[in-house]
Amino acid sequence: MPALPGSKTPFWRRAPRLILRPLDYFEDNYRRYGAVFQVGAGSPPSIYVADPAVIQGIFQADAAQFHIPAQGVGSGLTFLLGDQSLLLLDGERHRRHRRLLMPPFHGDRLRAYGDLICTLTQQAMAGWQPSTAFNVRGAMQDITLRVILKAVFGLGDGDRYNRLRHLLSTLLEGLGTPFSAFFIFFPGLQKDWGPLSPWGRFVRIKAEIDALIYAEIGDRRQHPQPNSADVLSLMISARDEQGEPLSDGELHDELMTLLVAGHETTASALPWALYWAHWLPAVGDRLHQELDSVRPSPDPLSYASLPYLTAVCQETLRIYPVAPTTGIRIVSQPLTVAGYEFAAGSVLFLNIYLVHHREDLYPDPDTFRPERFLERQYSPYEYFPFGGGHRSCIGSAFALMEMKLVLATILRHWQLALPEGDRRPLKPVRRGLTLAPPGNLRLVPLARVAQPQALPLG
To answer: Which superfamily, per CATH, for 6-448?
Structure first.
């Protein structure tokens, strides 16, 4: 098979555009080289894939066909998550952690978080004032941090909760700039030059977060809470097939993964959903009509099943997916998929953004149109905002439920509007490895909705 088309520009020359203007970078390469192309002059090559047939073959291939990098971007995340994070594990260790972590995010356990999400959203909205604009990213981060700390740790008050919430917010904002992405893409920049240096400040904040997490783990070991539904309690009691529990180090790294990765998706997606609902009045009107049509119910998940609300969330994650590509897969042995031959060592990036913008799948792909998800059922190789295959996100159902319930709670309690004179179309900006709306997006609460129905107060 002939070599794939692509660019031989070295990484250090490509990186600034990849970091600062990633969507332009992907789209330009796609137009030039097609749906499967390679970049860089190295051997084996780095390959981007935006062909659903190829993605299907990769998702369905045996997990042993791939491994993740021991160096590069993957190892660049160990500073944040730890080297025992599910995102950075391979082989049997990955399968073991995945089996132990899956139960809290499915079935009845998932349903139990519904009331919690609605209640914490209402608490976070308590300080909103009519006619006083608020920063949407900050407000959504506040809500999602409250939810993740309560759902994961069972923490909702106290000194440890307040300190963790403050430190995590500071840490994530520090990593939320395009500049910070250079530390991830170039791990050699991770140098501690003292507490006033960017990396030195991060190191000290991270050390304090680690100490608080280990203290919480220690307290839970000494004082088990067998009836608690929070994720930490379930993780401590979980046992693998040999009857072994997760160690303190494994618990810490998985908790950091849930706090960071589990928080970032919804904290970045929710501002987009609120933006589209107010940038496009027809979307907001239809969403309000659907929410108003729901009969009172004590079950918040009755809102999570609404078709147009679901479609709005799906379209939000389609048009600007939080992660533009899935995690890196390195081919362990030669692989042939849909007519393409990938050599051992090939580094594969499955490009979510490019697939989500294919004209043949999503006509007029740059237009926000939730109706497309009511008109067609997309395959998991055509629409995969949470990845797929054996490395799909274990928290995807939780994240989607949280998005829907937060949106429903906000829109049932407040009438919102974009500020006067602030009718500019928004484009995503880089936040570390992810994409998000600009941090200066604001909304104005116009008035409280009288006696919102059916959403529980806790």
So the answer is: Cytochrome P450 (1.10.630.10)
